């Protein structure tokens, strides 16, 4: 007879701590928490339910990026915040995205309301951790947006600010330009060349 796994609060805390306090029903189950226990701890205030399958340990404060955490966790462990949402997370844009942009593996097909899903293969070097979120690197983010048709002036500003703040360097931007080609390469080379945006 299969015994129920005992809840391991330390294991759940360790998972949530890496994600600014957020966790999924699946992650809780891996730490031994049944749905009934999730309901119980939500009622007592130990957990805060943010939506279907997404929770936050109450000892962790809500963050300004809470909507990004919810979207990221809903899309699965291989999802990465990208495009306009990544640019905003790096504070390289004053624009407020109308949708949350997430890049998922090509095998993912499920559409979710309020989300703009992009399918692409991401290399490990394309992904960074920021505020507990998986997010595309600055060079990848800028290249994605240049390729998607973001106004050249906004790409220029993002490149300038990223270089000034030390979030990337010209070499990384030019390497990404070579890799992506097309409009992304043309725009990035123009503004990340030796005579382009300041270093």
Structural account:
The chain has 199 residues and is α+β, with helices and mostly antiparallel strands. It folds into 2 domains: 9-57, no CATH class; 66-192, no CATH class. It has 9 helices and 8 strands. Strands 1-3-2 form a 3-stranded antiparallel sheet, sandwiched between helices. Strands 4-5-6 form a 3-stranded mixed sheet. The longest helix is centred in the C-terminal third of the chain and has 13 residues, at 152-164. It is elongated. The termini are far apart. The model has no long low-confidence stretch (mean pLDDT 90).
Q: How would you summarize what this structure contains?
A:
The protein has 199 residues and is of the alpha+beta class. It is 43% helix and 16% strand.
Task: Please tell me the total number of domains.
Answer: 2
Shape: elongated
Could you tell me how far the N terminus lies from the C terminus, measured between alpha carbons in angstroms? Answer: 65 Å
Give the helix tally: 9
